[in-house]
Design a protein that fits this description.
- It comes from Aeromonas molluscorum 848.
- InterPro entries: HAMP_dom.
- Pfam families: HAMP (PF00672).
- This is Methyl-accepting chemotaxis protein.
- By secondary structure, the chain is of the alpha+beta class.
- It has two domains: about 170 residues, Beta-Lactamase (2-Layer Sandwich); about 90 residues, no CATH class.
- The chain is about 60% helix and about 10% strand.
- The protein has eight helices and four strands.
- Strands 1-4-3-2 form a four-stranded antiparallel sheet, sandwiched between helices.
- Helix 1 runs antiparallel to helix 2 and helix 6 runs parallel beside helix 7.
- The radius of gyration is 52 Å and the shape is rod-shaped.
């Protein structure tokens, strides 16, 4: 397949741009997702600490019955899908089973009540969420509060846990929109750059080469070596045009010597005397009279 120089350049630039666009979009998606998860994790740590402090205040003021109000306040925060207190076995043994929302529902709750924290992104089809759990241990000095004074358990016993579920759908959708906007902007910039590159190639490369090609074809077909091209001697194409003009000058000088040599040969031939023909020589000899032997001398 025959392609012009401009088409080859455009194809090469299009390939490079496509690779850059794909890798930049993938890198941007990974980076923005990581940034979102980092921000959500920091937010979850602050909200868990605030939830613990709220529970301590309710216990100290003997208002644990209002803990559902505290829970609903956290549910009203942005991106919070669920917020719950998990009731440990030691607390249930001392104070009863508690509310339905305070029981274990899945493996994350089970791990939290076993004293293991969790922070994991869960994908349920098209839905993505971040699950964060942190166990609450009985300590003698937890933010200035002695947990063992209210809970008759040994230190570091798991009293319960706090769990937050954060919806990531809105945030990930925003990331995708940002990536799409960036991709469209890069495509527009590349399109303008491609048009500018095409104009530069046609003006500085293709047009001079086309003029040089036409001049060579005319010189070959019509044997017209008098046409010269104008070009900028500062670049490679200009030097090619200059070399072409010099070649035509040399061709004209070579062709100019041949007529001169032919004229000189004709002039030399004209200045030589005519050579007699063989028939004229015989006639001359026959015109000479020989004396008759019978006649007296």
């Amino acid at each position: 397949m025959r392609l012009s120089i401009a088409a080859k350049f455009n194809f090469f630039l299009l390939f490079i741009f496509s690779m850059v666009l794909v890798f930049s979009a993938a890198y941007q998606a990974v980076r923005e997702r990581d940034l979102i998860l980092t921000m959500i994790k920091e937010q979850s740590s602050e909200q868990i600490e605030a939830y613990f402090d709220g529970l301590n205040m309710l216990m100290l003021t003997n208002k644990m019955a209002a803990r559902e109000t505290l829970r609903h306040k956290f549910l009203n925060h942005a991106h919070v899908e669920d917020a719950r207190i998990l009731r440990g076995a030691a607390v249930s043994k001392q104070f009863g089973a508690g509310l339905d929302s305070e029981g274990s529902r899945d493996e994350f709750d089970t791990l939290a009540l076993a004293g293991k924290s969790s922070m994991e992104v869960v994908h349920d089809g098209q839905h993505s969420r971040l699950v964060v759990t942190r166990p609450l241990l009985a300590q003698r000095d937890f933010r200035g509060t002695d947990c063992t004074s209210c809970h008759q358990v040994a230190e570091n016993t798991v009293l319960g846990a706090v769990r937050f579920d954060y919806s990531l759908d809105t945030l990930f959708t925003r990331v995708e929109q940002n990536i799409l906007t960036s991709a469209l902007s890069l495509t527009l910039i590349f399109g303008l750059g491609l048009l500018l590159t095409l104009w530069v190639i046609r003006t500085w490369i293709v047009s001079p080469l086309n003029r040089l090609t036409r001049a060579i074809e005319e010189a070959t077909d019509r044997h017209d070596f008098g046409h010269r091209l104008d070009g900028d001697e500062g670049d490679e194409i200009g030097r090619v045009i200059l070399a072409y003009n010099q070649m035509l000058d040399g061709v004209e000088r070579q062709l100019g010597k041949r007529p001169c040599a032919a004229s000189h040969a004709t002039a030399v031939h004209d200045t030589q005397p005519p050579r007699p023909h063989s028939g004229s020589a015989e006639g001359t000899q026959s015109d000479i009279r020989h004396p008759d032997p019978g006649q007296p001398k």
